[in-house]
Amino acid sequence: MSLFASTLRRAAAKTSTKAFSTSTSSLFEVLKEQVPARQEALKKLKAEHGNKILGEVTVDQCLGGARDVKCMLWETSLLDAEEGIRFRGYTIPELQKLLPTAVEGGEPLPEGLIWLLLTGEIPSKAQADSLTAEFHARSKLPDHVKAVLCDLPKNMHPMTQFSIAIMAMQTDSIFARKYQEGIHKSTYWHHTYDDMLNVIARIPEIAATIYRNSYFDECLDMQYDSSVDYAANFARLLGYNDPHFDELMRLYLVIHSDHEGGNASAHTTHLVGSTLADPYLSVAAGLNALAGPLHGLANQEVLGWIMDLDEEFKSKNLDVNKETITQFAWDTLNSGKVIPGYGHAVLRKTDPRYSCQREFALKHMPEDRLFKIVETIYQVMPGVLTEHGKTKNPYPNVDSHSGVLLHHYGLTQKNYYTVLFGVSRAMGVLSQLFWDRALGLPLERPKSVTSEWIVNHFKK
Ligand SMILES: CC(=O)SCCNC(=O)CCNC(=O)[C@H](O)C(C)(C)COP(=O)(O)OP(=O)(O)OC[C@H]1O[C@@H](n2cnc3c(N)ncnc32)[C@H](O)[C@@H]1OP(=O)(O)O
Ligand SMILES: O=C([O-])CC(=O)C(=O)O
């Protein structure tokens, strides 16, 4: 757990008679209790440390995408270059042990993860179930959103459709309506809370409508099942009814949710939200960032790369093995392209999200042909990229593995994969957006300079 998180916990414990939720408290009750304590803790942090230095910024960082510049508050998760992500202080293996599950010994429920991201506390199974019920109760899509989706060209990229649908749903933003009515800023978080839960509740049906409409020409007849958890219902909406796929969906939605604040989708959501644009506008902006090939879209690119590799050597009657993969990797690099699914802006070791997907594959589909190719790629690619000598991290990231798992269960439409990533990412970025408004974080506006300014600055 980060020092700041533990400071906040201690502050919460001091300022509240019942600082931690009992196993039956509702999410809103828990947060209502936490907000004043966390506001106080942030005030104290500013008073005690406000004018101290967190780091310096070099010209390289200014020109190089602000790597490692510490200039954003993000409470829900923290990334370590070697160890990978911790959600509110917990690693993925810890969450697999601690969070409530749908089946004995199974994968964690995304509802439990959302509770943790928002409150910093591991929920009871009853609390996770209460959140499942809350999402089902809030899930009804406005009719016009369905109509918009059904009218979009089927060949429009699924991420473009996703963003359009969320923008269309912005008509329902309670935050935007209340703001227009002239509410007091101390109440922003109440309306952000409602918008956040409504968006998370409704995006499975949006995402599934995009899938069914784009690939099966079915738009209106969705099989919503409120008797099961969030991920299993999402699987039903997509058209899947396999307990192992449900488990994959639970794991997938948990691990893709949050990756501290600096990644492009999180940062964009946070930036747009800082203008007091409502959660719908903010998360749609974040999804547009996720749709870039250097970010979330890399999962689509990875499966494409594997398929191209397979095709190339099949057509030459050659096996896909260490040698042929190495040759294909060099062809990719020599044609000025990146190896999708490898490298990372922060990580310097294998992404733990890759490792837990690998564990899932070893448990459920060890003989899958594409999984075996991914395993062989993992054996050779770090060596190839090290020899290439450019990337600071020659190891795989989360996107390197997700496609083959989905493909195994029949979800083979790779252009759709980033939508699944987006359903999960919305959980993380909206949880932080809730705290942005609850803590009263200001408009984000870093300083930019011209190259001329930099030259002149060093002449002085
Ligand atoms: C959910 C996620 O967003 S995870 C990331 C998903 N994206 C990918 O998998 C795409 C492939 N990977 C990459 O393009 C990069 O590693 C990124 C975008 C993820 C990180 O970028 P950076 O922080 O700039 O990486 P880094 O500092 O290591 O880059 C140095 C050089 O190595 C190159 N490099 C980095 N990764 C790779 C790679 N996988 N293949 C080939 N070259 C690479 C960069 O393009 C850069 O080249 P340049 O000097 O010619 O511009
Ligand atoms: O952290 C990053 O820059 C990219 C990433 O892995 C994510 O957003 O999940």
TrEMBL record:
A cellular-component GO term for this protein: mitochondrial matrix
Gene3D superfamilies in UniProt:
Citrate Synthase, domain 1, Cytochrome P450-Terp, domain 2
The protein, known as: Citrate synthase
| Organism from which the protein derives | Achlya hypogyna (Oomycete)
Q: Which Pfam families match?
A: Citrate_synt (PF00285)
Q: Supply the InterPro entries for this chain.
A: Citrate_synth-like_lrg_a-sub (IPR016142), Citrate_synth-like_sm_a-sub (IPR016143), Citrate_synthase (IPR002020), Citrate_synthase_AS (IPR019810), Citrate_synthase_euk (IPR010109), Citrate_synthase_sf (IPR036969)
Q: Which UniProt keywords apply?
A: Transferase
Q: Which GO terms describe its biological process?
A: carbohydrate metabolic process; citrate metabolic process; tricarboxylic acid cycle
Mention one GO molecular function.
acyltransferase activity, acyl groups converted into alkyl on transfer
| Record-annotated active site | 295, 344, 399
The family assignment reads:
Belongs to the citrate synthase family.
